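Annex B. Sample input.
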Amino acid sequence: MATVLIVDDDEAILTALKLLLKTEGHTIECASSPEQALQIAKKNALDIALLDMNYSSDTTSGKEGLELIRKFQHWQPNLALVAMTGWSSIDLAVQCLQAGANDFIEKPWNNKRLISIIHNQEKLCRQKSAQAQLRSENDLLQQELAHNNDFPFVAHSAAMQALLDTVHKVAHSELSIFISGENGTGKNVLARYIHRCSPRKDARLVSVNTGAISENLFESDMFGHVKGAFTDAKDTRIGRFELADKGTLFLDEIGNLPLSQQAKLLRVLEEKHFEKVGSSVTQHADVRMISATNADLSEMLTQGLFRQDLLYRLNSIELHVPALRERREDIADLAQQLLNKACANKKHAPVFSAGALDSLISYDWPGNIRELSHVVERSVILCTGDTISECELQLRNKAATTSGQSLDSSALPPTASLEEIEKQAIERRIRYHKGNMSDAARSLGLSRSAFYRRLEKLQIH
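Annex B, continued. Sample output.
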């Protein structure tokens, strides 16, 4: 049922319409003046407004009603407007529709027709809302497909078994979960697994790379905006919090969030409410929060780069994803699953030789599963027979490292393109800074947003 605002300066009409529409199951708000109506519209989410066209200062022209329609278009552009007057004319009806009204009805009204109009407008509101949601979901899906690098989920090792035991205990709760771990360990895969194990599994999981959102678009991206809120706001947009309603919101790279944006996020987590940019209508945020980072938040707290009160809100439970070198029992199965994925469109898939498997298991993998994925993909391309050899893995020139220390990649050929050289330089810098994107960007003399644009352009995930 719809939330209907009735605006009329006649108390008897307000009472009659309220009784009529309440019997149809609608929620009713009443206002006796344009000023009161606008105050209600600014603070409440409405579906339909039933507006008288004339008030105390003017009884026949309809100018007050036309002006109210225009103001409603600004404050709640998706609101269905039904104009109503006892001084109707074809000219006034046309003006109402041109101003933004969806329908027009004369006084005294026919109950059947009025109920039919309200019912039709309610259906129209739902369709508009669904279309806006579909547009936002489609944009989000396109982004996820473009950057989909989910790793297989394998958990034979003791470290992963211990992690899964904890996951199964906390997944059914509503506690906020914070996932830590080195770059490339599969924190986003764990977030998806938690969502699938939770009571919210039938709702959406909305993933956000917080480090890739520019500061001036943060509120619009997270909370949405109404049409006309700023220069490029040509349509009303649903934000990530609204998209994740009744589901899970996963905030990746939370350590790269600037302090100014941390404050805005903290307010939503504390109050469970937010407003779209350009709107004063408060909306409820019913989401389960999961966040992740490879940054050292304890060090960032010490340096004043991360808010302690925000961290308290995010890490009711902390889960640490072990590095690949700490779960060597999983490497063979992970490599096989990645090999199957890399050969999905091939008629004949090669297999790893015994020597290749030994090399994969003994290597320290500073880039973790992401590096393993790249190595497997490359070996499939280089392989000329039915077996992938140790040589085709090209690991022999890479010195084993410990504790995630930096690692030099094999030299590029003299014919490498500028883009390939830039990609390798950035990947090496990320490894040097142990996956801390903010430090890597600063060391290259790039702003955070410029750094993430390069990552996207060069397809560095």
